Structure formats: structure tokens, C-alpha cells
Amino acid sequence: MKPLPLGVRVAAGLAVTALEQARKLPQQLAGLPLTVVSEAMQLSMRVQQHVTELAIKGDDVLSGLRPAEEEPEWATFDEDETPVTTSQETPADDPWEEEERALAEVPEFLPSYDELSIAQLRARLRNLSLEHLEELLRYEKDHAGRPEFIGMLNRRIATVKTQ
């Protein structure tokens, strides 16, 4: 028997494939909304990734043109807060006398200064005069000498002087 021409065989194969796909159609229609949503979400995520990559590249280029602030005045971080350190001076004969002397030196306008965290102090700085700020700076340098407190007080003094 002689084989049928190629066109006829292809047409028969196409008809069988169309019939098979028509039988699967109800199952595919049930999953179609989920497929469409899934593909839309994937596309959205790819777009977000590309936008983020472009922003990072832009940040890299622009960082050379405009240097970032070392530490903005308003920024606070957990690592900025350090535990209260005790003085390493030689102890006095009477520990009560040393405590009374330390309490007497605390600025009168802010008696709880030594117990304040850096964030708590920052919240109170706007209400203080230039003289009080300078007094706090001297007190901090003479006692605990915490760099983050000294830096914050110096920045606030500079701000008040320019206003």
C-alpha cells in the first residue's frame, strides 16, 4: 500500500491534536485564572527587581557627586546608646562623700542628666539656651566624656549659634 501524501497525514495529525486539546479545555479553563494571576505576579516582581537595580546603580553614581551626612542630627540608633560608665578614678575614703560631690556638680536645670539616654537628651535640647547647652557640654567632658553625647551637644550648640 502506498503511503498517503504528506499534506493529508499532517492534516489528520492536526485534527487529532485539536480534538485532544478540546477534551482538555474544561480542565485548563478551571486553572486559567490562577495561571494568569501567577504570571502577572511574576511579571510585577521582575519589574520591581529591575527598578531596584536601576535605583542602586543610580545611588552608586550619585553618591560620588553628593557625599552623605556622617550622622544626621535627628538620627538615633540602638548602638548609639551606651551603658552608663563609672569613673575609673581612685575611690575616695568615704563613698557617700564622693556621691554627694558628684550630685552637687550635676547641672541644676537638668538634675537627671546622668540618667538620660541620648534619645531622651535629644528631646530636651530644643528647650535649652546656649548657656545651658555649653554648661552641659563642659559637664559631659569633665565626667562621662561619651563621644556621642559630646558630638550631639556640639552640633546643637552650632545650630543655636547660627539661628
UniProtKB/TrEMBL annotation:
InterPro entries: DUF8129 (IPR058442), LipDrop-assoc (IPR047728). Residues 119-156 form the DUF8129 domain. Residues 70-82 have a biased composition (Acidic residues). Pfam families: DUF8129. Residues 65-97 are annotated as: Disordered. This is DUF8129 domain-containing protein. It comes from Lentzea guizhouensis.
